[in-house]
């Protein structure tokens, strides 16, 4: 990936202050605060009518909690969508599971518009009329879409040119390769009775590379076998996996 990609992220949230801390933190926050990627927060409450500027209401059909009212949210989304070709993304437990390949394609867009739900969720008619896609982080309950939007933003921003220290680290990411990472070690060489694997001090770069690949395959087989079915493996990888599968040795 080369050249500027993301220009702007627009977050629609009832808690725009929530993102202030995010902007102040880390390399991704730096990209935002330095304006390399613009972050705009839009609060649906600013589009709500009446003295109370109410943004939620009781659910039709009864049941617990409140639902985000459609009109303030719709006006906020329409305000954010400067171009009809802009894609509006909702953060929602009903969404498609976010993964690295989705993150990579989101990182190529010029603009992201992220709609954060609160309460029990948003009025379904807003989903139908104005939301183009929905993203979930996984099968656990968050208290609002802001947490998910922050995760998506971090994952996308660190892929922007100049945001990561080393260009290489993004390409070497675990998940980009489709495997879990190999183990890492630093000094001292012996710590609390534990030594580092000898090969790492051999200076033999091809042996180190082979060991790291083997460790990555071993961990993936043990901890996330689901990833192996979606990963391109070399004949050498398959041979290595076969030996790991029939023996439980290191
Ligand atoms: C306890 C409330 N749940 C009733 C069964 C439904 C529910 C409503 C709203 C659950 C979570 C939320 C708020 N979550 C999000 O907005 C959200 C989310 C998540 O909760 N998990 C994983 N990914 C995401 S993306 C947005």
Notes on the structure:
The chain is of the alpha/beta class and 250 residues long. It has two domains: 150 residues, SPOUT methyltransferase, trefoil knot domain (Alpha/beta knot); 76 residues, tRNA(m1g37)methyltransferase, domain 2 (Trp Operon Repressor, Chain A, Orthogonal Bundle), CATH 1.10.1270. It contains ten helices and nine strands. The strands form three sheets. The protein has a five-stranded parallel beta sheet. It has a two-stranded antiparallel ribbon with strand order 3-4. Helix 1 crosses helix 2. The protein is elongated and about 70 Å long. It starts with 7 loop residues before the first strand and ends with a helix. The mean pLDDT is 92. The structure holds ligand 9D3.
Main beta-sheet strand count, sense and barrel state: 5 strands, parallel
CATH fold naming of the largest domain: Alpha/beta knot
- Ligand list: ligand 9D3
Which outline best applies? elongated
The radius of gyration is 23 Å
Number of helices: 10
Mean pLDDT: 92
CATH class of the largest domain: Alpha Beta
Order of helices and strands: EHHEEEHEHEHEHHEEHHH
Q: Structural class, from helix and strand content?
A: alpha/beta
The neighbouring-strand order within the major sheet is: 2-1-6-5-7
